[in-house]
Amino acid sequence: MERQRVPPQPLREHELPGQIYGSQRGAYIGRAQLWYDRMGAGGAASASPAPTVPSPDIDALAREVIAGKYGNGDDRRRALGANYGRVQARVNEILGAGARPHSQVVDVDALARAVIRGEFGNGEERKRRLGANYAAVQRRVNELLS
After folding, report:
1. CA distance linking residue 70 with residue 63, whole number of Å
2. Do the Cβ atoms of 97 and 129 come closer than 8 Å?
3. CA torsion 81→33→30→32, rounded to 10°?
4. Strands, E assignment, the chain
5. pTM of the entire structure?
6. Alpha helices in the chain (DSSP H)
7. Which of 70, 71, 93, 125 could make an S-S bridge to 79, C-beta 3.0–4.6 Å?
8. pLDDT tens digits for 41-94?
9. Is residue 115 within 8 Å of residue 126, measured between CB atoms?
10. Phi-psi label, residue 34: left if phi above 0, alpha if psi -120 to 50, beta otherwise
11. E strand or H helix that includes residue 115
12. How much helix, strand and coil, in percent to the nearest 5, is found in the chain?
């Protein structure tokens, strides 16, 4: 009796074994997808490494994130893949989020635009993420939307 061959299905993020994050995740997906593609085409997977991807311009990606090109939350994580951590850290630097001296001036307009794009969530999450800047930023959001 001959076995029926079942073609491989594309990998989905939630089907990854264990917890794979950052650059490891991207490399794993690339190698695994290459193997599946070759097996699906009837060829055998070879030991050749996955093609290298050129290094991205983190500043350009961060500016695109701020412009809203990559969405929010999990959508942004999926879109940026292995670059998510570096890009999000750069976005936070540009927008002045995270730890900073109290004497540093905050760009309320930039934060308000990021809030409008949904980058700081809603309700309590927004209050938590904006911290001491919440009242000023929310006031500016209301001004921009009225």
Report:
1. 10
2. yes
3. 110
4. none
5. 0.34
6. 22-40, 58-66, 73-80, 84-95, 108-116, 123-130, 134-145
7. 70
8. 555 545 555 555 556 788 888 888 888 888 888 888 888 888 888 888 888 888
9. yes
10. alpha
11. helix 108-116
12. 60, 0, 40
pLDDT at 59: 86
- In angstroms, the CA 116 to CA 127 distance is 14
Q: Which amino acid is at 27?
A: A
What the block records as the tokens of 92 is 């936070």
CB 48 within 8 A of CB 56: no
Q: What is the DSSP letter of 12?
A: -
d(Cα 96, Cα 124) in Å, to the nearest integer?
20
Structure tokens at 11: 């990998």
Which residues, other chains included, contact 47 with Cβ-Cβ below 8 Å and sequence gap of 6+?
A: none
Which single residue is written with the structure tokens 């996955």? 50
Q: Provide the residue type at 2 as one letter.
A: E
Q: Which tokens sit at 90?
A: 């750069």
Q: Which two tokens stand for residue 9?
A: 């299905």
11: CB partners within 8 A, 6+ apart: 29, 32, 33, 36
Tokens (6 digits) for 64: 């695109």
